[in-house]
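Researcher: Please translate sequence to structure tokens.
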Amino acid sequence: MNNEYRIASIRELRDQQIKFAPRGKRSEQADRAEKLLTEIDPVRDYPFDFLFYRVTEVRPDSTGYRLIKGTDVVHDLRLFVEDITDSMNLRVEEAAEPVHTVEDLSKMFNVSTKTISRWRDQGLVSRRFLAEGRKRVGFLHSSVERFVSQNKNRVARGERFSQLSDSERDDILDRARRIAATGANLSEVARTVAQEVGRSTETIRYTIKKFDQQNPTMAVFPEQREVLSEEDKRAIFQQHHRGISTVILAKRYRRTRGSIVRILNEQRAAKIMELQLDYIPNPVFEDPSMVESILSELPVSSEPTRKLKAPIGLPAYLASLYDVPLLTREQEYHLFRKMNYLKHAAAEMRDKLDLKIPSVAMMEQIEELYEKSVDVKNKIVQSNLRLVVSIAKRHLAPNDDFFGLISDGNMSLIRAAEKFDYSRGNKFSTYASWAIMKNFARTIPDEFKHQDRFRTSNEEVFDFQQDRRADNFAMEIDQATRTDQIQKILHTLDQREQQIIVRRFGLDHRFEPLTLKEVGEAMGVTKERVRQLEARALSKLRAAADQAKIDLPE
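Model: Translation complete:
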């Protein structure tokens, strides 16, 4: 059953009545709503003001003329009756007439409880009562009689087809086994058998699943009882991402298409939980009147755009960076506020995401907000890439790798864009310059140490003619000591962190170091998630190294 309201106004009406209306009034409103249900024509549209008055006998404050589809009215009024009676905590004994349970109706009409659930969706009004200390769904006798009188054919059809004889059930199971042996999944088997025996697909599906649950050793689909591992689920998600349809995946893993879709949604939700949605908060994010301004287009600069000339000697693709106009202070503020608001909105929505039954619409909104925030960040970074080139040129030494410096500087720029607090009124270029130079100051000394191992000039070759090697036996001892120290501090990490560090830095001599993307593909997670885990692991290792008094490179 679908228990989500389709009309926000009726949901709000329910909330108001539960909160403010006395218990007696709520009982009257439930009766009026049920009576109104019998008069609603699903093919017509109805003004909300009319519905509001019929349920409450009060004229609404608004003068708006909102039309609502009849099918939505029927759906929401049924929920309204159930929710209002649920709030009353009414005991079965207090009801003015007999109350029937789902099981009572199942026996009364000789139908399954699933059929009763379908009847509720088709207009059988249910209420909630206190029975034996807990809330249970119940049906007033008058509600049942009203539904039967209006749905005689449906009730008769349910009575005729609901119950299967033993021979009919055995015939269905024999047919199902024969078709399942060809590799068909449960949905395909149910549809085929339903056509052969003249029953509904849902009846066949229910019969097979119930038999398999009660008789696992003789099950038609024994594989359905097996639980897929997390590795299998990740593989399903990756295959679907590469374009393999849910129909093929259902056959490949002997599952129903619905179960494959659920797995895909669960994996998609897990990916969303790994999205980098840290943001700089701002009070204006909580003001709905500011949303339109925050999400508006980039303001046009009042000053004429001045094209800067690229320094001489730069490669073409670096020189092209100077064609991108610089941002004004107002434009920069606008973009940073927009980027952080988009991540704020995505994070707020992600907190409400139900990981067990994730909403596809909600996941699409979160992903869309995240992608928009990335687009805005890229625009900020692109407008400041020339800053990296300028700083790299100032830090460039004769033996430095210029393009390596550019790459490191770009990463520092991206991180700076994510951490910059735009609300303080400072220019981003000041903050980013400090971050880039700090990174260069930390990495360049290490680069010098590595370059000393690869001297190429004649003078450097002559310098190396003198044998300055230490005693081989002592070197082996030192190497063994370092290996032992590394293994000791590696054990301070959990298994996944150890795996990332070993693969990223080539600590297993049998394999070459891997990139973030390659490690992510091997472990079934995103490149960004690997980066986060690597940073956390390195932080743990530094702490462990300090505690063990192991010298680290400065």
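Researcher: Any highlights?
Model: The two ends are 63 Å apart (CA to CA).
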